[in-house]
Hints:
The chain has one domain. The chain is globular. It has 350 residues and is α+β, with helices and mostly antiparallel strands. Strands 2, 3, 5, 10, 11, 13, 14 and 15 form an 8-stranded mixed beta sheet that branches. Strands 1-4-9-8-7-6 form a 6-stranded antiparallel beta sheet. The chain is 13% helix and 30% strand. Helix 1 (86-99) crosses helix 4.
Amino acid sequence: MKHLILLLAVIPSLVLADGKVMPPRNYTGSLEERSQEAIIIFTPGTKTKSAIEDLIIKIQVEGKVDNFAWVVPLPNQPETREEDPILFKECFDYVQSHLRPAKGKFGGLVKRAAAKDEAQPANAVEVLSREVVGSFDVAVVKENQQGALNAWLKREGFQELDGAEDTIGFYRKRGYVFACIKVADTALSKSGTADIHPLRFTFETGGRDGIYFPMKMTGLQEEKFDVNLYVFYRAWLNDHINGYGFEHRGFELRWRDYDSEKCEANTGKAWSAPGSDPYLKARTGKIAELTKFFQKRHPGKRFYLTNIVARGLQPKDVREWDNDLWMFPYYTDKKMIPYDAREGGAAAAP
């Protein structure tokens, strides 16, 4: 969960692969992410224009505290909005409907607040923005000096990330930002768990063909974790065709859309107009919220859905990765090195 620490506010350790959850400073128990899901919609870039990514994250927190923070690292400053959790249910049901034979809200109001932090030492941590998104207070910050992020978290009332300079430094050297999300008034259930409504981060990846998902922060927690990703892209993703496939990072393919005899080959699916798509038409009524989302965010664009999962990932192993999780298109040339994985690219190893 350590990689999430850069993007969102701090929350105690969770078993999620997109950041880090930190408890209040006086909390002595354990707060861990036990499950994490994300929906990613990727629009590729060009030689001169950065790719754009919508990253919608949903987490489940386990612990005995009703106030925590969540930190998620991102390549660039994001736009942050609240999304409806029904999107995840529809993605799940859609995949399940393909895997087995079929049988017979949050408001999103955003209030902007001043992006100043008077107590912050000059330029050590830049508070790029601060706003209230649903029930979250979201501060997007950039650490310019070693140790400054921990000092800022402490002033905000949350525990520091002890012994995490290798991970925090990884993001600082790359110029990444941290979305620090403070979650208040969140009542955990009697069982000690709570589902937090999803947040969407829209940002430039800084690259061309690499699809980004933060992972290294999760390496700061202690418990194993699972990851479930729904990736929408105009083509298939590289699974194992060469060394840049997602299977080499411990993920496996659960489902991906294909072209039926009635489909136009290699053009994706019309998620914003499923009634006109021979592949999606039969499921139109069951993806109503996804349709509304795509009509609002990506009207007229076409995507294949790829669902990949990883189970029982070891935090210590993820912490040793030389980079976060980057997914690439399925280039048919096995010798093809993805543009962003080349030297100097957004997804290149340090």
